[in-house]
Amino acid sequence: MLGVGGTAISEVERLFIGPLAEEPETPVMTRLVQMRHRIDLLELEFSKVAAEFAAGDEWDSDNHESAVGRIRVACKMGSGAAADRICVGEEMEKLPLTVDALECGRIGFAHVAAMARTARAINESRTGQSFDEVPLLSKAVKTPISRFIDLCMHARHQQDPEGAGDDEAKNARRRELVIGNPGEDGMVILRGLLDAAAGAVVRTALEPLARKAGPDDRRLKEERMGDALVELAMHAMDTGSIPQRASQRTHLQVTVPLETLLGARNAPAAELEHCSPISGRLARMLACDSSVSRIVFGPDAAVVEVGRARRVVSAAQRRALNAQQKHCQWPGCDRSASYTVPHHLVHWAEGGATDLPNLLLLCFRHHWRVHMEGWQIMRTDQGITTVPPPTGLAGWARGPDGWVIA
């Protein structure tokens, strides 16, 4: 059994003759290459034993559904990694030149795994062709693994196009998306699996929306992709491109007490469908461009009256805004009008008029910044101006027109 730290290295040296170069003048990269090669040799030996295990019945007696599952649990590996090792172990006798190239350090174990998967697919295909390792091996020795995997896919398709198509259809049937319930902090975890084509579609749709929104955008790429997913979904709802539900356009339903919308003290949180309670600030943001229905409750919480839903910003006003402003009005942002919402400079809940002088088109990102991050946006004689939130409260006071120096 391998130990940890130096003990593990000594075990590798015992299994594979020759110590690692440890002279002070030896470049670190040279030592890394040597270590990686020895790990690859161990992986090859592991694969041989894994194939022997899969061929037996020991895994079945342990109440596991497959040898992959047993190895995954016992060896603390992912299912894909375990399956690759079994595949390499089962195919290595048919790939003598590939195995020799690994032992000589000309290719890595990842190249061998890609070759083994390709060999198995072609050998088991309906075309009845046998896999020839020579053409691909000549490319493997000079091709990074990310590119080599693509070359293996080309080789597979050339010899077995029907099988390649069958695999794609099988992968498409494995698509899934799980949306968890909100946690204690209100965050929701997404877990999904997409086939290659579906992943490309989603990524292609999100990438343009995930570009940085100006030089002050310090979000990480992962954060921008998360915002892009939300923006895409909101755009689909705003444009009515999602199938209707109960004869109505798909929409978010927010239930918010009037005092919460007005920002009164001791007001309760708002409630959002499929979500934990949300703050008044977020409710005000969602209410900027919405349909509003008044609901009156009696003392026993029974509904006394339900008012008629009406749009805050009418369809005619929205068309006028789109024609007049054309894109997000945040300085430097060119997000098109179809990806924006009308923002009230003075919120309608505070008596702000829903007319064109009091409305600005803002994209999802910049609308969020105004309502949730404390930025201000206003019209001045010089045009549209933004004011960042104060970095600290010391020396500042809140005036009727925003933050001013005390």
Global morphology:
elongated
Structural class: alpha+beta
Strand order of the largest sheet: 1-2
Query: Helix share of residues?
Result: 40-55%
**Main β-sheet, in a few words?**
2 strands, antiparallel
The low-confidence runs, each spanning 5 or more residues with pLDDT under 50, are 1-9
Mean pLDDT: 82
- Looking at how many chains there are and whether they match, the oligomeric state comes to single chain
Number of strands: 14
Order of helices and strands: HHHHHHHHHHEEHHEHEHEEEEHEEHEEEE
The rounded distance between the terminal residues' Cα atoms is 70 Å
Query: How many whole angstroms does the radius of gyration measure?
Result: 31 Å
Share in β-strands: 5-15%
What is the number of helices? 16
